[in-house]
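pasting for ref
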Amino acid sequence: MKLRASISMAAIACAALWGAENFNVRPGQWETTSTTQTTGLPPIPQEVLDRMTPQQRQMMEERMKGNQTPRTTTTKSCVTKEDIEKGFGFRNEDDKACTRTVISSNSSKQEIKIECNRENSKQTGTVKIEASSSDSVKGSGQFTMSSGGRTMTITSNFSSKWLGPACEKEK
């Protein structure tokens, strides 16, 4: 489901963006704990809503309203030296609908703007990251997804710690 993929992408972006050249973090295995909360209704394209019965729409809206409590997840990811040098911290480089712009960066702080424009939806967001050391970062992100007159906001706070130089093989 594209909505779930978009939310996952937002969470992954928040959890794994360690970007630009002089951002002082170590390559290797990282563990990220993030707390994410959504507000609003999902930006479902109008043609999809039109195919739903009124009962299906009401049930979907009630379910989404019930899912607006904060969720905490912990993930592991591998960050390479090339990821850090190129400013790519999340592995969704194949998504041609999205662009990422480093607004500001130094050895300990970074701010990144993310924009995704798809056929019937737009997603924008900002991620702010602070490295307290080369093996510990924390940050926050806020994303807005809009389509069909509906808007959903996703906020996330995260902390990441370096686990070591060797990465686990992805499953």
